[in-house]
Write a structure and sequence with these properties.
Layout: H1 14-41, H2 47-71, H3 77-80, H4 89-121, H5 127-130, H6 143-173, H7 184-194, H8 203-220, H9 223-246
Helix pairs in contact: 1-2, 2-6, 4-8, 4-9, 6-9, 7-8, 8-9
Amino acid sequence: MSSAPRETPEQLALPTLLGLFIVPGALVTVAFVLLAPFVERAGFPPIAALLVAILIVLVPFELAVILRAARHQKQGMRSAVPYRRALPLRDWAWLVPVLIFASFVGFGLSMVFEPTVIARFFAWLPDWYVRPIDFDKAGDYSREAWLVTLVAYLALNGFVGPIVEELYFRGYLLPRMEWMGRWAPLVNVSLFSLYHFWSPWQLLGRILGFGPTVYAVRWKKNVYLGMVVHCTGNTLGVILVMSMVLGRV
């Protein structure tokens, strides 16, 4: 009978952790900035450039790190992503709605001061960077361009991106931060929030909104819990955006 994977794998030093958090976010942001002019010339809204960056940079980079770790472990993926402890149905039934509610409360609170943060610290950024989906300019793009973009937005921001991010940040990195003790989830969600260089004004919002989920993943040692909460929250947000955009084009 095969032994279960260790839930506390070999730990990563702080400089390595910082690199693994910051580098993919920086690369995605660079790709977003470089691609945005070409995407707009092709008749698509700026958010399409970020979606392409997610597809060609974020997903390959983060999966490559996980797969590389799996190749060097005796139990492969089970050792690379050890937080797979079974979660009783009763825990799924109460944890998922509570964490989704906490996420919306956290992001909702941050939206109160987010405009002030943007105006005070990020007014120097171009409008397309701050508002890659600008509802007031939705009519500047064809309905066909929006339909393609929104389908990709739902697929990449609602499912593919969150699943890969949870595998990477909570499945791979969080177990390798156990040397930080009780601070590991807070450091993890803070660096995860910082990694979103393409929307730094949401730094505190992501910590408030997603912090409880990160603590729950570590508590229950179940990465799938983070995937479900992350995908659900993102998908609900995408659906809201879709309804607002399609009502204007």
